[in-house]
Write a structure and sequence with these properties.
CATH architecture: Sandwich
Largest sheet: 6 strands, antiparallel
Radius of gyration: 13 Å
Strand content: over 45%
Number of helices: 1
Oligomer: single chain
Structural class: mainly beta
CATH superfamily: Jelly Rolls
Number of domains: 1
Distance between the termini: 26 Å
Length: 98
């Protein structure tokens, strides 16, 4: 049985995901949350992954380009997004352990 934890996403350790993007991931057994902060004008190149992803924009504006499973993003100013992935991204979990 897993133990419950209460963590403030805004106070979690900030990690660099890409140039101009920081992340604050939190992991469950089968899913994860990831608070992303985009600097103004940040571009995330087209990419794809097998995970289901939801991502409401909490602050600012984010332009998305979606082509099948590939997607890209561009921030039009500082932007805050809460990504939800299922299953949890093990590549992000490994990055958080370093």
């Amino acid at each position: 049985m897993s133990r419950a934890r209460v963590v403030s996403l805004r106070e979690a350790e900030r990690l660099e995901l890409a140039a101009g993007v920081t992340m604050r991931p939190q992991f469950g057994e089968g899913a994860m949350l990831n608070l992303l902060e985009f600097d103004s004008g940040t571009v995330v190149p087209a990419h794809a992954h097998p995970h289901e992803q939801l991502g409401p924009v909490l602050e600012g504006r984010l332009a998305l380009t979606v082509d099948g499973v590939e997607h890209a993003a561009r921030s039009d100013g500082r932007c805050l997004v809460l990504d939800v992935f299922q299953p949890a991204r093990e590549d992000y979990r490994e990055r958080a352990r370093r």
